[in-house]
Structures are given as structure tokens and as C-alpha cells.
Fold this sequence. Notes:
Blueprint: E1 3-7, E2 18-23, H1 38-49, E3 57-61, E4 67-72, H2 79-93, E5 99-104, H3 115-126, E6 142-147, H4 155-176, H5 184-192, E7 200-204, H6 206-212, H7 215-221, E8 229-236, E9 245-255, H8 275-289, E10 295-305, E11 317-319, E12 325-327, H9 335-350, E13 354-359, H10 364-369, E14 374-378, H11 381-394, E15 398-400, E16 418-419, H12 428-437, E17 446-450, E18 456-457, E19 467-468, H13 473-483
Parallel strand pairs: 1-6, 2-4, 2-5, 5-6, 9-10, 9-13, 12-16, 13-17, 14-15
Antiparallel strand pairs: 3-4, 7-8, 8-10, 11-12, 14-17, 18-19
Amino acid sequence: MPIKINYSKNTYNENSSNLVLFSNDNFNLNNLKKYFLNSEFSYINDLLKTSDLKKNLFIFELNSKKKIALISIKKNLKSSDIENLGAEFYGRINHGKNSEYYIISDSIDTKYNNFLGHFLHGLKLKSYEFNKYKSKKETRLILVNVVGKKNKPSEKNQLKFKALEAGTFYARDLVSEPGNVLHPDEYANRLNSLRKDGLKINIYDDKKLKKLGMHALLGVGQGSVRGSYLVTMEWNGAKNNSQPLAFVGKGVCFDTGGYSLKPAKFMEDMTYDMAGSATVVGLMKSLALRKAKVNAVGVVGLVENMVSGNAQRPGDIVKSYSGKTIEILNTDAEGRLVLADALTFTEKKFKPKFIIDLATLTGAIIVCLGSEYAGLFSNDDKLSKQIFEAGEKVEEKVWRMPLHKNYDKLMNSKNADVQNINYIGGAGSTTAAQFLQRFILNKTPWAHLDIAGMAFSKYGGALNSSGATGFGVRLLNQLVEENYE
């Protein structure tokens, strides 16, 4: 349902306006008495006496025209708890006809900085819907008016949250698009339009990629009638020429598995095999919109892994941009081929402070971590710690997994420098990360996030409905904001 938030000086009608009030953790209403009619105050107090006060939220329907939502501010809340509270509130009011609520900001009594900003941020994130292709769209609207003199988010914080929401929603939109719409050609066109946000965009098409020698990436896309692309997005928000922070994303717009064909069941979900790239795009959009004081670059490889008479075969050997040769033992291990060229290119061209890549890379990470954590693999302890802590703060969690030279033997090829899968079996996510690490040539601090279990949710999460999650945009923004601005 569409939602609109107004910061208004207008007052509310005490007889017919839906009010949102915040109480302490015990739902003590004494400090809120001035917002109630006398009969309402007694009635709600009586109801609370027989209610489970461990809950965070109550909505009382006082008459056909008026409701009062009471939200308790528990002790020791984290920002993610507050955002979840906003999302829970949205879930409770997201039904029926058009509705209007008045949040009384003066009722907020907490020392937590920017409480209302985080609450509204959670509410907005939860409100996302992708209904572009429905012929009958709902026209309902929830209008939220923030009234009061205290506790309103500053304009700076409003801009930050708005930028984060725009980036997250853009990422979700990209992942939600069907493969016949968001193929590599269309994807590249959409990224070109981000110039209007202040990003510098460079698009490398098939011809340029061949000239550069990116045969690992090109090999994945050669079975498709669509083009293959590498797109760079640069944001120069620092006043100096400091090294940029680099983010690299896997953009396989549809993955059949190639000749190593995937099972038909659930293949329709392979439209989200470009979610890593969508996160990078959403992050770069957010950084630009909020005018982040940092230099950053996003690099995405856009391909379509199809079956045709020209498609890559098991047993093929390709030469990557790094100069290393790769034996293709399984054409469904294609994302690492795209990333191999993108990683080396990013390191060589931009000489970044660090590189973080994101990809829906392996089903093995879902077996290991389910849909609660993304897998984190890294050659740098400091960067790993920063990513982990950022994830904890925004509740986009990661868990560090091992890398070790002993895994290399599982990826060594008899016929080339490296093979693209571990045929012995086991450690599927680790050996995939171990493969990627070989294409970081100059010891640049690097982290790989395997987001296969996090990019798409069948059942929805705290801050998103079922479907694309936009996982990683808020995590990486927190990383940048906290450590590099």
C-alpha cells in the first residue's frame, strides 16, 4: 500500500483523528493524559490492565472514526529494534480503505537519538510493494502526519533515510523484474540513467570487453542473444583524491545453468541471480542521493546464462582478464567467472582502498546459514570486523566463513590454471570464495558476501514483505558512514 509521510504544523481533531502515541515500557499513560478525552483515558487504562504488556503495540478502536495506537518504548533499544517497531506498526495498519494517522512526536520520551527517524524508516521499508505488472492496482493510501515540536528528524536525517529507502527500493525493483524485461541490454540502459543522480557511468559492451580480454565474463553470456556488459558507477564525494571504496556485484539476469542445466523446479526464481549487482547499484544510488563524503565505485558484470548452439560447454577453457586460464567444468558455476574478471578489473583500474563483492553465488551457503546470515569470506580481519559490526547494527547480518590455502588444491585444474568448481565435493561456498580470491592480484583488502539466502524471501522479513529484500544496501551504507566518511 502506498504511504505518504508529512511533517506538519497542523493540529489534529481530537474527536475524529487517529493518533499514534508513545509510552514507557509499562504502558503508563499518566504523561499522555492530555492527548485523551477523559472517557478514552479511563477506557484504555482498563483495557491495558487485562492485556499482555510484553507486547510493543496496541491499537484501540474508540469509535467508527477514531483509533489510538499505543507504542511502548522499551529500555535498551537498538536502532534496528526501533525500525522493526515501525515495520510492525505498518503491518497493523496495512488493511482496509484509505487511512490517516497523526504521530504525536511530543509524546516520545527517550534519550535515544533520532528515535522517530528510525521508526518511520522501518515503516517505509516495510511498505514496499512490487505491483508493476498487475492490471488492477490498489489505490489505497496511508497518510502519516507527524505533528509536534519535539523529536522530529532533522532535515539531514530525513535526507539520509530517504536516500537509503530510494536505494533499497531501487535494488528491490531490479531484483523483482522478470528476465524478459530486465535482460542485460535493458539493465545497462537503466544504469546509464543514473547519471541524473550524479554518478559517472561507463558501459563496456561486448566489443570493448573482448578488447580488454574479459573472456571469463564473456564466456558466460555467449549463449544469449543479448549483450554482455561491465558497468562502472563512480561517486566522488570526498574533497580529495583519496582511494575509492569499491563494490562489485554479480549481475546474471537469468541463469538457466547453461548446459549444466538447472532443474526446472524453481528455475523461475533465477531472475534474482543478479541481486548482488542490484545491491551495488542501490548502494551507489544512495551514496549519491545523500551526497556521501566519500569516493566510491560500483562495478557490475551483466550477463545472461542461456543454452544455445553458441553457449559455453563443460570442458571449455577461457583466459580471464587477469591472464589466468580457467577450465569450465560446470557452466552453472558462472557467477564466479563474471566476478573473476570484474574483481581484477576493479583492482587494476581503480586501485581501491578495499573491494567488497556481493553475489548469489552458492546454494551451499543456504545449507549452511539459511536465510538469517550472509556468508562473509575475507583476506582482511579489519574489514571483516567492520562489515560484521555494520550488519549487526542494521540487522543485515553476516557470518565469517573460513578461507585457507589448503582449499586451493580442490580448485587446481590439470588442464588450466584453475577450474571453476570443486568436483571432489564439500565446502562449496568456501571453494567458490577461494576461487575468487585468486583474482585479487595485489593483496587489496577484499571481502566476498555470498547473499544467496538473503536476497529473496519467500515469507518476508521484519522490514520487507515476501520477494526481493534489497539485502546489503543498508549494511554497506552503514559500513561507509561509520568507518570511511
